[in-house]
Amino acid sequence: MEQERNLKEKMMLSFRGIVEALFKGKGIIMMGEHLLAKEYLRFIERVHQVYPKLTKDDMLIVLLMRMRFRNTEIARLLHVKPASFRLRRWRLKKKLEGLGSDLRSIIMKL
User: Fold this and answer.
1) Are the CB atoms for 38 and 51 separated by under 8 Å?
2) Which residues pair with 28 in a beta bridge?
3) Residue 24's pLDDT is what?
């Protein structure tokens, strides 16, 4: 129950509504339907410079992991089963050249 509440709170960031008026000039930007703090935009730019061959889906997974979403939450957001998401994580780690033992720690170091 609490996990669902946390997921709903995180998903609330994706609604457009009055967001632009509320956050204009406050370091928050819109990217598609998602709100991003400018710090995350800079992070995306850094990742793209280091790994230019990552797909948009890969970048989304990297970003959500950087934002400390849990794997089950990311799987729900991507509308995939947790087992499918584990496979996607494994493939992503291969693309990141296996710079460490844990994908999340690799992402946090970027």
Assistant:
1) no
2) 37
3) 56
The identity of residue 23, as a single letter, is F
Angstrom distances, CA of residue 88 to CA of 28, 71, 75, 91, 96:
29, 11, 10, 5, 12
- Whether the CB-CB separation of 2 and 68 falls below 8 Å is answered with no
Compute how many other C-beta atoms are within 10 angstroms of the C-beta atom of residue 59.
Answer: 16
Quick: pLDDT tens for 10-48: 555 444 444 454 445 555 555 555 556 667 777 888 888
With cut-offs at 50, 70 and 90, classify the pLDDT of residue 82.
very high
Q: How far apart are CA 88 and CA 105, in angstroms?
A: 16
> Which phi and psi angles does 74 have, rounded to 5°?
-65, -40
